[in-house]
């Protein structure tokens, strides 16, 4: 961008800014664009503010589908905007080329941020206007609320380290009797039949007298008598 001086009729000097194509930049358009941007930010802030409302007994948990590896940043941005948002994390041991293994924190469920709010169209619209938030988890156009008991249990497990991969038990072999501690099959007992991808085992268990096999992360198993 460069500037040039042009003569006014009263011999005053006015500075005119040119764009890269050499065309004069019309400030009235710049002012209009700026006003529009301010109006949009004000509207977005107003919509997002609806997600901070608190009515006793009316709050519900919902899950946001967000960009990969952006969960923590989005959570922090929502918290700064006074929205109750959480990302349960797990400890993961990763290898490094130049030093010993390092423990890092990663979301237990990749691509999800959980928010606790009073459901409303304005609140949902505000959340969906946040950068890198793609959708509210649900069926069709209806976001699916998560029960308090289910969500609190999930967060308690994460806080207790139940999902930490560095706590993967050792000594579990094919044929070992195990108990599942997390998930839909929690407290089920079974037998390890083999290993699956992602540090998981294939466990044979029983439900209503019928035998079936499920893949379970090693961190979610413990040896059973």
Number of domain modules = 3
Indicate the CATH class of the largest domain: Alpha Beta
Query: How many helical elements?
Result: 4
Structural class: alpha+beta
Strand order of the largest sheet: 14-13-12-11-15
**What order do the SSEs take from the amino end to the carboxyl end, as H and E?**
EEHEHEEEEHEEEHEEEEE
Tell me the major beta sheet.
5 strands, antiparallel
Describe this structure in words.
This protein is an alpha+beta fold and 225 residues long. It has three domains: 2-47, no CATH class; 50-160, 2-Layer Sandwich (Alpha-Beta Plaits); 168-223, SH3 type barrels (Roll), CATH 2.30.30.30. It has helices at 27-49, 71-80, 121-128, 148-160, and strands at residues 2-7, 13-18, 60-66, 84-86, 89-94, 102-107, 112-117, 133-136, 138-139, 142-143, 177-180, 189-196, 200-207, 210-217, 221-223. The protein has a five-stranded antiparallel sheet with strand order 14-13-12-11-15, with no helix packed on it. The chain has a four-stranded antiparallel sheet with strand order 4-7-3-8, covered by helices on one side. It starts with a strand and ends with a strand. The relative contact order is 0.12.
